[in-house]
Hints:
Layout: H1 31-34, H2 36-57, E1 71-83, E2 89-102, E3 105-117, E4 123-137, E5 142-153, E6 175-191, E7 195-210, H3 211-218, E8 228-242, E9 247-258, E10 262-274, E11 279-290, E12 297-307
Antiparallel strand pairs: 1-2, 2-3, 3-4, 4-5, 5-6, 6-7, 7-8, 8-9, 9-10, 10-11, 11-12
Amino acid sequence: MKKITxxxxxxxxxxxxxxxxxxxxxxxxxxxxxxxxDVDESITDIEDAVQDSFERSADPDRFGPSDxxxxxxxxxSLSYTGRTGNVENQDFALxxxxxxxxxxFAQSVGLSIEFGxxxxxxxxKEEVAAIYDAQYYFNDRFYAFALGxxxxxxxxxxxxxxxxxxxDTEEDDDLRRDGFLGFGPGYRIINNDTTTWRVQAGxxxxxxxxxxxxxxxxxxxPGVDNSxxxxxxxxSSRVYHRFNDMIxxxxxxxxxxxxxxxxxxxxxxxxxxxxxxxxxxxLSYTTEYQSEREIRTDNxxxxxxxxxx
Length: 309
């Protein structure tokens, strides 16, 4: 099981199902036909990506649950596209998240469903994913967390499959099912107006089933077991420090280890500058280490700038 991405730390489970955004179908009369609308959407995508980078860097959970919205709330989004003419295909996506916060206990459940068909009418996507996140605060500093994730890719259907809707896979470790459940304690070492530092660590269990395993199960082939359940250990650190109203830094570290998957370590250091009310800049440097890869370390430099006038 060399291909393993159990969890890139305790917060990676929050690959969030975002609130849907509603926009015009075109920015001006004739924009769709002339291609102006497509370019405008690309500009919006870039702006959203930069804005997301700034919002993540601010670490909205750095001060704990005191300012969290209380009660039950959530969102749901659905999209469908059906095409006829030169191409005939369709895509469907459903995503939503429900959150419930009550005093020291906060939890959320997320779900995404995606289906698609190619021009021949065969399925080219059939994926379901669910996540769970919970935190219980015993006091201002000490808390417990729980993380859950489960993914199903129904088109990973094994090798030599006659089903046209399936993606025949040559790799034994292509995953049809992939689940993770972890929990443990966390502690806020520093928690004041200018500096916060919290750490958490725990134990997790991961279950995987490969496409080849599913293929063998469907044909009642004995002696095949490519499913796997193993224990992993996770640890995370989140540091935030504000020098003044113009500059703050963050350092996020996540570590995961397991027998089959080896070690996974990520660290992101970021510096955020607010030059003025119109200009803001973020510089980040991310290092990702995986012991089971041929080239074990990847490094990424990121620059984001926002200027308004």
